[in-house]
């Protein structure tokens, strides 16, 4: 899924990797679209940097946070609502977004080649790593082949694409319940599939959705089937071993998140826990690469801190680019309207 006005042509005819500033696609590639990545994109775009976000989903762990009571400006706000507001800002600024997963980054004299799982390649003068924790996959046949063609890891992103359909939510807990409720709003028939023995208390599902909802406890997905788009999923009962096929138009995977930074080892310095080590300006051990949010070694994993880190990383990226070009760096994001001594 792409969100852009003119980005599709660029993706369909990818440039070869030429290590020259004149051939660079973007000033900033932001990896991740949680609160840190989205905030970084806002600040980078406001500084007129050509910005691309690459992420598997929008919101990350905030999508499973039912209530936030310590974010400035809100007495209480759900994580999904907060993310939606910030996401709206990003869209209004025209930031380009690619729903994919970055699997490698190469560096040649300060120009970066960013590679994705779906085979796209982009060059950039800077990179901001803000992917937090990565959505956990089912790891079954057909899942990766049908990703973006019916398999989704982000209900808030892709629910509007499904209406009056039969869709499955795979997972348990607040994030899965939220996905069920969201998909019901689009008049879908929703199947909830999970390993647990207990059945979901129906009061957790909006009353208007209950007639269009079915649950399969003690059940796992064995395979995703389809061609150009998803057609069905193969299920197995953990209770009696029964295997059957369920026709669906979409599968929303809500299995939580995990830290995935091993692919960066040797590229940037990581802590023993696998976190990206940054300084107070969001700089990593590699020049031109910055990081923000829960993926870093900053000890306090809070939404407001991740947002602040995203802003710092973007402004640091801007100053890095300006320094390379011999331009003026900024010390803040304020704009002086007038001077008293003039």
Question: What do you see in this structure?
Answer:
There is one protein chain. The protein has helices spanning 7-12, 35-46, 79-92, 155-158, 174-184, 303-325; strands at residues 2-3, 26-31, 51-55, 96-99, 102-108, 111-116, 121-129, 134-135, 151-152, 166-171, 189-193, 213-216, 219-226, 230-237, 243-247, 250-254, 257-258, 289-291. It has 342 residues and is an alpha/beta fold. The protein folds into two domains: 2-135 and 257-325, 3-Layer(bba) Sandwich (FAD/NAD(P)-binding domain), CATH 3.50.50; 151-254, FAD/NAD(P)-binding domain (3-Layer(bba) Sandwich), CATH 3.50.50.60. Strands 1, 2, 3, 4, 5, 6, 7 and 18 form an eight-stranded mixed sheet that branches. The protein has a five-stranded parallel sheet with strand order 9-16-10-11-12, with helices on one face. Strands 13-14-15 form a three-stranded antiparallel sheet, with no helix packed on it. A hairpin with a 2-residue loop joins strand 5 (102-108) and strand 6 (111-116). It is globular, with a radius of gyration of 21 Å. The protein starts with a strand and ends in a 17-residue tail after the last helix.
């Amino acid at each position: 899924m792409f969100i852009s006005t003119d980005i599709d042509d660029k993706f369909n005819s990818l440039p070869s990797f030429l290590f020259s500033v004149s051939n660079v696609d973007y000033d900033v590639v932001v990896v991740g679209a949680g609160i840190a990545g989205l905030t970084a994109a806002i600040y980078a775009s406001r500084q007129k940097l050509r910005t691309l976000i690459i992420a598997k989903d929008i919101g990350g762990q905030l999508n499973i946070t039912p209530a936030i009571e310590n974010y400035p400006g809100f007495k209480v706000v759900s994580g999904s609502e907060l993310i939606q507001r910030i996401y709206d800002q990003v869209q209004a600024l025209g930031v380009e977004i690619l729903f994919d997963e970055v699997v490698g980054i190469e560096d040649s004299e300060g120009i970066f080649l960013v590679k994705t799982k779906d085979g796209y390649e982009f060059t950039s003068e800077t990179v901001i790593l803000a992917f937090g924790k990565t959505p956990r996959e089912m790891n079954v046949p057909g899942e990766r082949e049908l990703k973006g063609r019916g398999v989704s890891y982000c209900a808030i992103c892709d629910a509007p694409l499904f209406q009056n359909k039969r869709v499955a939510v795979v997972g348990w807990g607040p994030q899965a319940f939220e996905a069920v409720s969201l998909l019901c709003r689009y008049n879908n028939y929703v199947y909830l599939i999970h390993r647990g023995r207990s059945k979901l208390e129906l009061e957790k599902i909006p009353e208007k959705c209950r007639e269009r909802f079915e649950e399969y406890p003690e059940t796992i997905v064995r395979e995703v089937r389809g061609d150009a788009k998803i057609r069905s999923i193969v299920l197995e009962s953990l209770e009696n071993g029964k295997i059957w096929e369920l026709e669906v138009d979409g599968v929303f995977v809500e299995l939580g998140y995990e830290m995935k930074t091993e692919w960066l080892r040797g590229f940037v310095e990581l802590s023993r826990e696998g976190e990206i080590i940054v300084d107070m300006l969001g700089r990593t051990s590699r020049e031109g690469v910055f990081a923000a949010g829960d993926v870093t070694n900053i000890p306090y994993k809070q939404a407001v801190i991740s947002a602040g880190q995203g802003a710092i990383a973007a402004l640091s990226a801007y100053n890095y680019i300006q320094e390379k070009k011999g331009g003026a760096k900024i010390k803040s994001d304020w704009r002086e309207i007038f001077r008293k001594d003039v």
